[in-house]
Each structure stands twice: as C-alpha cells, then as structure tokens.
Please model this.
Amino acid sequence: MTWSRREGDWRDEDPELFAIIDRELERQNTTIQLIASENFTSPAVLAATGSVLTNKYSEGYPGKRYYGGNYVIDEVENLARERAKALFGAEHANVQPHAGANANLAVYLGLLEPGDTVLGMRLDQGGHLTHGSPVNASGRLYRFVSYGVTDSDERIDFDQVRDVARRERPKMIVAGATAYPRLIDPEPFRAIADEIGALFVFDAAHIAGLVAGGVHPDPVPHSDVVTLTTHKTLRGPRGGCILSTAGCAAAIDKAVFPGLQGGPLEHVIAAKAVAFREAGQPSFRDYAAQIVSNARALAGALAEEGFRLVSGGTDNHLILIDLRTFDAELTGKQAQETLDRAGITLNKNQIPNDPRSPFVCSGLRLGTAAVTTAGMKEQDMGAIASLMGRALGAGGGGGGGDARDLTAIREEVAVLCSKFTPYSDL
Ligand SMILES: *Cc1c(COP(=O)(O)O)cnc(C)c1O
Model:
C-alpha cells in the first residue's frame, strides 16, 4: 500500500474529524484572539509539523541515538539546535522538550535534588504553575518559596526577592511569569543569585519572541539556564526549548532524555527550526515592535473605557485588567464568558491580591501577539477596546450581557476579523 497525497483524500476518509478542524479554522479566522499565550504559526511551521518526520523514533541526541536510520533526523535536530543558539546567543540548546512545562521540570530534575529550595514568583501574582504550585510536580518535589509584586506599583519587589533569598538560601532562583505586563530585568536577579551562590533560571516562555525581536532584554547572558516555549510570542509550533551555559549542558540533556521524556517529536523540532529561522529575519523585529506598540495602544484604549490596568499599563505583549473598578460585581469568569459570546477570546486571570478564587478571578489577561500576526495595528486596538467596553457594559452589574447587544457586537467583530484573516487560503 502507498499513501496518496491527493487533495481531499483524508477529508473523505474521516469527514467527522476534519469537519471539526474546519470549524476551528473558522473560529480562528472570524473571532478576535487575545489569549496572551497564543499566536498564528506560518504555513511553513504547519507543514513541518505535519510532515513524515512524525514517523521516526530518535531517542537520544544527534550522533548518539538508540535506533538506526537517524542520519536525516540528526540534521533536523542539529539545525534546530544551531538556530536556537544563534538566535539567542546561547552556548547550548536542547530543543526536545515537548512543552514549556517539560522544559522547566527538566531543568529542576537536572540541577536540583528533591527537597531543594527554589525561589520563584508567586502564582497569584503572575508566576507559572511549574514555579512551585502545590498541585504541580515542581511544588511536590521541591521546596518553593516565593516573591511577588509591590502593593504600590505592582512591579516585581526586588527588596523582597533579596530578603527571601538571604533568609531561605535557595539553590535556584527562577524569574519569568505567565501574567506580568512589565519588563523583567534579569540583572538584579543575577546579582541576588550571585550574592547567595544560587543558580539563576529565566523562564522566557511568554516573551521569547520579544527577546528574539529585540524589544525585551536578552536574559541569556545573565542566566545559567533560559527556558522558553516556541508557540507563544515566538510564533512557532507548540513546544519547549532549554538554553544554557556549556557548564549546565550535560545535566540538562540527561534530564530531558532519559530523565523525563522518551522519543523526541522530530516533526515539531523541525517546525521549531523553521520558527527560529523566521524569528531571526529583520521582519520579525518589526513584528515584535508592532506587538508592543499594539499592546500599548490597547492598554491606553482600555483605560479610556474605564478599565484599571494592573501596574498601570504594559511594556510587553500582555495586559492584565482589574475589573473591579469597571464593575464591582463583574467577575473574570463572567467577563470571559460574555466576551466569548461576543467573539472576543481571552482568559480570566487572578490579579495581585485577588479577593476571588482562581476559578472566578477579578481580572482578565490579554495579549497582542496573535492579532499582530493577523495584521492589526494601533487603530484596530482602539476598536477592540471599544467592543469590549460595550460587551461588558451591556449587561450592567454581573456582566451577563444583553443578548441582542452581544449579537450585534459579534457581527462587528466578524467584520473587523474579515480584514485580518490569518489563514485565508487554508
Ligand atoms: C506557558 C508557560 C509555561 C508552560 O508552557 P506549556 O507549553 O504550556 O507547558 C511555563 N512557564 C511560563 C512562564 C509560561 O507562561
């Protein structure tokens, strides 16, 4: 038997599944994507992800595989590694982590012993699940202590970082966040880590594309290890990557395989190579600058709509709204659901010192990476803010949203999206 490439074959074979994929394509093309961790990858990334590389088992690393027939695969992985190192100026790259969470766990596994103390950002102030959540392996295997943001300006409290570091003597300090709208300066973290003799790990999952595009300081020269995801601002396939000094390389590689994972996803690694090349192009610098410029425009327009922004604005691709001043009764959960009905996709999020539970939340998190890929500019951010203000104001307290108004808003959303269709000919 040979597999045919004829267009449409697979659709006829499995119309049930491919109809679902078509509906997701339609959703991505016709609603506004403001999830801060999402983006639209290029057709080249999609093609590599959907390639025959998915068939090959290649446990191990280039030149040291457990199975035969890896001479082509080795070229794929070497290309991805070399491109990652060149893009970020790193001494070593491991491109095998299946996701950002795996990258972080591999770093802990490689550089810590169970029970070791780690200092990371508080989860309810912007840190990630893998920075010590009690329900995550990180929090179950290691002793995490934390720092947060100041009450006054809602930026990282470096006095607290230093105090906790001196008191708890962590073996590792982790910087990086999943819901923090400001630049994270690696230098003060490095200084504190040096003072107490700790390793410094920077989790650049969200901002990797901003670093590659030159609009966020590069943490690599200041860090022992930098972890990242390839699918957020970097705009590649869903996956993770670890950059490190040459000194940490062997421990990291051993922790990823055989420590944590089995066979690497070489089709995804190929797509990572595509993304690293794309992120090295001059046009990607323009893209990164436009992401930040769009985020500033959206932040300004949201403030005009009456929304309070955590820290007063943004330096990166991300905005955190505190809904309480807009409508004291409106929860993040209700707002997310109402906006979903209006065709505006984002997520509820905790804000610093949130009085509500993580399932309800008082905030919303938005990002501009995807809409910027779709071609939107500053003036379109104004339109989005106004649509959001109308949708969430429509229902009065509780944000239920008048159904008629939401239908009208959804139509306006569709008109806006029709000018910025990420995948018009897929
Ligand atoms: C998204 C994210 C991760 C995890 O990435 P996944 O690919 O979802 O596993 C890790 N750290 C931070 C800071 C993140 O934002």
